[in-house]
Amino acid sequence: MTSPLPLVTLRPMQRETTTDEETQPQAEGSAEPLFTPSPRRRRLLSLLLLAGGGAAVLSLAPHWPKERSVDFRLDGETGTVVGFDVTWSRAGGEAEAVSGSSFRYEPGRAPKIVHTTVHLPDGSYALDIRIDRADRSDSMQRTLTLGDAEQITVPLR
Question: What's the pTM?
Answer without folding.
Answer: 0.61
